[in-house]
Design the sequence.
């Protein structure tokens, strides 16, 4: 039997994520229109919609961090244009190869970002307006779109203290709080050593879209809940194991 975790995100978080997505795409289209004008041809790549979901609905995810967003889109855009021009007489093969190469290169550069695959695909299948851009497609609209939506993600997520985006900016603060907070220091003792986490993830052998910090936090909170609410933990276990 496959166990499923409850969908535990609050209603408040749903609407904050939706508002962030709206702000991000509005900014992308507005800035692109100002920069490129009505004759700009392609103002935005469709993959920005997918990036908005990651940046505003899953801001803590590894796939949502700045380097994956920036590197993933730009690398994929270059590959997409290359395939479109190299295999101009075979767009089906060009599109398939563009996505495949983008995945491989993003893995190699540690900038895996699923919307990057759509950026590569759009370079091939976007039609004459996109093809006419050539490698300019990488800078405008892709780079312009990426910079705008990343700036909005940083600014929009900042007021919400639980939305730590980008995560790297908050690590120093977290370490400082651990030293000042005895409770956090006690939780730290229960955490899994980094080497053990790396080993466990290598055994799964698939990409897990969660940071090590959040994995540790989830583990510590689960241990704390189990120690303070043993009956709740037992009831949850029994409910999970009972066939529906």
Sequence:
């Amino acid at each position: 039997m496959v166990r499923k975790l409850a969908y535990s995100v609050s209603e408040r978080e749903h609407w904050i994520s939706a508002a962030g997505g709206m702000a991000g795409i509005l900014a992308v289209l507005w800035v692109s229109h100002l920069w490129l004008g009505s004759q700009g041809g392609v103002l935005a790549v469709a993959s920005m919609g997918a990036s908005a979901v990651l940046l505003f609905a899953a801001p803590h995810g590894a796939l949502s961090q700045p380097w994956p967003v920036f590197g993933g889109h730009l690398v994929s855009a270059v590959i997409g244009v290359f395939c479109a021009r190299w295999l101009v007489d075979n767009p089906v093969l060009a599109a398939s190869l563009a996505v495949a190469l983008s995945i491989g290169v993003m893995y190699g550069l540690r900038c895996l970002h699923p919307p990057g695959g759509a950026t590569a695909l759009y370079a091939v299948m976007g039609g004459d307006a996109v093809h006419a851009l050539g490698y300019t497609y990488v800078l405008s609209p892709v780079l312009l779109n990426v910079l705008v939506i990343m700036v909005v993600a940083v600014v929009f997520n900042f007021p919400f203290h639980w939305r730590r985006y980008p995560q790297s900016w908050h690590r120093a603060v977290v370490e400082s709080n651990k030293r000042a907070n005895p409770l956090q220091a006690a939780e730290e003792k229960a955490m899994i050593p980094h080497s053990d986490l790396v080993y466990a993830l290598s055994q799964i052998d698939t990409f897990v879209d969660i940071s090590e910090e959040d994995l540790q936090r989830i583990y510590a909170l689960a241990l704390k809940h189990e120690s303070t609410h043993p009956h709740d933990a037992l009831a949850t276990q029994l409910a999970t194991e009972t066939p529906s």
